[in-house]
Amino acid sequence: MAVPWSSQAPYPKHHFSQLFEETARRLPDKPGLIDIDETPYTFGALWQAARKTARFLQDEARIAKGETVAIYAPNSPQYAVALHGALLAGAKVTTLNPLYKEREVEHQLDDADAVAVFAAKALLPTIEAVRPHLPNVRRVYEIEDVFSLVEGSRAAPDPVEIDPVRDIAVLPYSSGTTGLPKGVMLSHYNLTSNIRQMRATGLVDEDSVLLAFLPFYHIYGLMVLLNATLAQAATCLVMPRFDPDRTLHFIEKYKVSGFFVVPPALLALSHHPKLDQHDLSSLRYILSGAAPLPLEVAELGAQRFRKPVVQGYGMTETSPLANCTPLGAPKKGSVGPAVPDTLEKIVDLDTGEELPAGGVGELLISGPQVMQGYWKAPEATAETIRPDGWLRSGDISRMDEDGYL
């Protein structure tokens, strides 16, 4: 069985935000992100706001290359502005779960060496409670106010030279295979490569309409929804949280085409009493990720939505996409073959020797999307990335003769 996508190599080495810039220059007036109140934000407006945010951070917060800016907020179009504004200023960005409480917020901001924070207004009391223990945090901004906050800033940030391969763009936190959450160092090159790999699967293109209730703080929402939209010139409806009724309303009203879910959301929607009252014919597919999809949930979803339900697989450590089911050639229970230019093998849990097709063992991954390592954790990095460069996933897997995982 031939995989329908081909190599995307060589992978360009440039600033991650360049993909967003190319979209904004080509289609400045196209709505890119639509907020929960159905207010559209064009690519041009978002890009200009990101550039002004970068200049504001350089001038007002004195952000220097390599420093860390944190985002602690639910999904919104302003999230994209804060993210790319920080990147254009030369910073790296760490993203926090908006459900985190004081202890978890303090740990991540301290461990990531955050110097500035974009926080939702409702979460400011949490930030203020831990700020006395965080002497490195120089500035805290309300993310809802980012457009007005930077209005007076000059449009052009001071250019910052980056090394796309070595310089970290985002620092999300993951439990990894063992232990406490650790910062995952993803470079500009890692992220740009994974967008290119995602593009080859055909899941998201310029005609796509997406819906994002998956959180942007998590690598799945951050890359597969938010940044795929910005890079691919798609349109995305941005929801701060999962709301089944509004989800179905948006799918019908805006003709959502690509629907990315996690298993609990698919299960909830499949049991929704008013599902059949909505016109969901615009959907091309439903793709589930972030957790194993039980076969009975996949079959129920396919039956209720009357659309193909497929799986993808990835990790924060792989930026995240590593595997994707081809829409025209799904296999039950599989997350599909590896995305372009990604090597995978299954190795014996005891010996580390590669197993033949059908063997059950640990999945190892190699590709341009594999992380640089764990932040401030050389021992954990050495345990996860082998000397030969292969990433140990920690996941027990099986690969068939067609390369489907």
Short description:
With 405 residues, the protein is α/β, with parallel strands linked by helices. It is 31% helix and 21% strand. It is globular.
> Number of helix segments?
12
Mean pLDDT: 96
The radius of gyration over CA amounts to: 21 Å
- Percent strand equals 15-25%
**Helix vs. strand class:** alpha/beta
Give a description of the structure.
Among the domains are: 18-25 and 37-185, Rossmann fold (3-Layer(aba) Sandwich), CATH 3.40.50; 337-405, Roll (Luciferase, domain 3). The chain is built from twelve helices and 19 strands. The protein has helices at residues 18-26, 43-60, 77-88, 102-111, 124-130, 146-149, 188-201, 219-232, 244-254, 263-270, 295-305, 378-384, and strands at 31-34, 40-42, 68-72, 92-96, 114-119, 139-142, 168-170, 173-174, 182-187, 209-212, 235-238, 258-261, 285-288, 309-314, 321-324, 343-347, 360-366, 373-374, 391-398. The strands form five sheets. The chain has a four-stranded mixed sheet, with helices on both faces. It has a four-stranded parallel sheet with strand order 4-3-5-6, sandwiched between helices. Strands 7, 8, 9 and 18 form a four-stranded antiparallel sheet that branches. Helix 1 (18-26) runs parallel beside helix 8 (219-232), helix 4 packs across helix 5 (124-130) and helix 7 (188-201) crosses helix 8 (219-232). The radius of gyration is 21 Å and the shape is globular. The mean pLDDT is 96.
Tags for this model:
19 strands; Rossmann fold; 405 residues; alpha/beta; 4-stranded mixed sheet; 31% helix; 4-stranded parallel sheet; 21% strand; Luciferase, domain 3; globular
